[in-house]
Design brief:
52% helix, binds fe (ii) ion, alpha+beta
């Protein structure tokens, strides 16, 4: 059966977020990849006797989006750090749409920071809604609750405590968000947006 393969990321020394935190976090990412593969494999086996295994099949399907989106969310998170911090090119299509949507990059960033401080574990996400040609933002609980149908994830900040508690303590959540955004390679994000627009 076809397997999901873990991706690799070139993450340099970061502002505020330690190499140890990134290493541990990458292990958690690998766990999502492994479990996404595990669920698919188990479902394949259980489907040999669907009636007998109906309850197990249902529960595995219920959990699949948690594992799958956990894998994909982290790929967006880590790849946005790859290559080190770089500003958003002013002439990029993403920069133009941000200004069109929010009037300025600064106002856009304020919105992202506001979402990121939502109470609970989950993700602050910026989306591209292809059908409307507009940017949207939302909070995603856990890994999979609150995804916007048909939208492409352009950027995502992991707001599970494992992302920041070792470096910032629970009270340092806001500083973690500031530092994550300062570490983002916006050229990668702009490129991801261009791919989504195609
Ligand atoms: Fe995470």
């Amino acid at each position: 059966m076809k397997q999901f393969e873990p991706k690799t990321f070139e993450i340099p020394e970061l502002k505020g977020i330690s190499a140890k935190t990134i290493d541990e976090h990458l292990k958690l990412y690998a766990g999502y990849v492994k479990n996404a593969n595990f669920v698919v494999e188990q479902l394949s086996n259980l489907h040999r006797e669907t009636e007998k295994n109906a309850y197990l099949i249902g529960e595995l399907f219920r959990r699949f989006s948690f594992e799958y989106n956990g894998m994909r969310n982290h790929e967006i998170y880590f790849s946005s750090l790859s290559g080190g911090p770089k500003p958003l090119p002013a002439d990029s299509a993403l920069a133009r749409l941000i200004v069109e949507t929010c009037n300025s990059f600064e106002i856009f960033m304020m919105g992202i920071k506001s979402i990121a401080t939502t109470r609970g574990i989950g993700w602050a996400v910026m989306w591209y809604d292809k059908s409307e040609n507009r940017l949207l933002a939302s909070w995603v609980d856990e890994q999979h609750l609150g995804q916007l149908n048909g939208c492409d994830m352009i950027m995502a900040i992991d707001m599970w405590e494992h992302s920041y508690v070792a470096d910032y303590q629970p009270s340092g959540k806001k500083q973690y968000v500031e530092d994550y955004l300062a570490n983002v390679n916006w050229e990668v994000v702009a490129k991801r947006f261009e791919e989504a627009v195609k």
